[in-house]
Design brief:
Elements (H helix, E strand, L loop, with lengths): L2 H5 L8 E7 L7 H12 L3 E7 L5 H9 L4 E6 L13 E2 L1 H6 L4 E5 L3 E5 L2 H11 L8 E5 L3 H12 L3 E5 L3 H14 L4 E4 L7 E4 L23 E4 L8 H8 L4 E2 L2 H5 L2 H7 L6
Parallel strand pairs: 1-2, 1-3, 4-6, 7-8, 7-10, 8-9, 10-11, 11-12
Antiparallel strand pairs: 3-5, 5-6
Helix pairs in contact: 5-6
Length: about 270
């Protein structure tokens, strides 16, 4: 048995199910991280990818939630905001961000939504030596992941400027978070100079995607971070490296969430 076989869960009649929803879904890294965790913990569970298009999302989610041995859902683009409507209870970070990346079954067959994207991202930044406290961060993307990251960055003490092609989405986010953190979050019609520049959009998943912003416009020393995990070295990070800027890859955001998922899904009690 090789190392891959040792980390592959054995499926039995008692196996508990988890699913990660997205469109597309081929890029998700959660199964390669959660399934080995299940194996290490001796948890009889498996996480599988589920490709759900927006027009079929409601049918897919309702069907999954009716599976009696399905304990949790992870959520990726573009469904993080839409999945909130399938939750009976919403944790504070998910409510503030208006999005979720994890739902768990709770008592009575009800579902609770949380969001760990932001906390995972900030933990990853700090582990790499890029503490956002007291720094100016320009965040590209006011979608599900971007909203969660915005909440976590503000909670960590950053000053934040949010940019998105959808101006109304930016206004909505800035108004919501500005009420909680007055004077520390603003919106912009284009990326601005900052200490840390973050891509929280899906741009970079596909080879022909345009850059979410041009690193040529950033000042020397700006940390360029991307939440896209596959490919690891996105076109944005490659362009930033070529200009001599420090970069931060997407994988740490998920890696730092493992402990959070472990607690949220009660894996130590499975």
């Amino acid at each position: 048995m090789n190392a891959t076989d040792a980390n592959r869960p054995e499926i039995t009649g008692t196996t508990r199910l988890f699913a990660v929803l997205g469109d597309p879904v081929a890029q998700v890294q959660a199964p390669t991280m959660l399934n080995p965790l299940f194996a290490r913990l001796g948890t009889d569970a498996v996480l599988v990818p589920v490709h759900a298009t927006p027009e079929r999302l409601a049918d897919v989610v309702r069907g999954l939630q009716r599976i009696e041995n399905l304990d949790g859902l992870l959520v990726t683009v573009p469904h993080k905001a839409a999945l909130l409507s399938f939750a009976d209870e919403i944790a504070p970070a998910a409510e503030l961000s208006g999005s979720t990346n994890a739902l768990r079954r709770i008592d009575g067959g009800r579902w609770e939504a949380a969001n760990f994207d932001g906390e995972g991202f900030v933990r990853g930044l700090r582990a790499a030596g890029h503490d956002p406290a007291g720094r100016h961060v320009c965040l590209a993307g006011a979608g599900g992941a971007g909203c969660s990251i915005a909440v976590a960055l503000l909670a960590a003490g950053a000053e934040l400027t949010v940019w998105d092609r959808d101006a109304e989405r930016v206004r909505t986010l800035v108004d919501r978070l500005g009420a909680r953190w007055p004077g520390r979050v603003t919106g912009t019609t284009a990326p601005v100079a900052a200490d840390i520049a973050v891509n929280a959009t899906p741009m970079g998943l596909r080879p022909d995607d345009p850059l979410p912003f041009d690193p040529a416009g950033l000042r020397a020393g700006t940390v360029v971070a991307d939440i896209v995990m596959k490919p690891r070295r996105t076109a944005l990070l490659k362009a930033a490296e070529e200009r001599g800027l420090p970069v931060h890859y997407g994988a740490p955001m998920l890696a730092e969430q493992l402990a959070l998922y472990r607690e949220f899904f009660r894996l130590d009690r499975a």
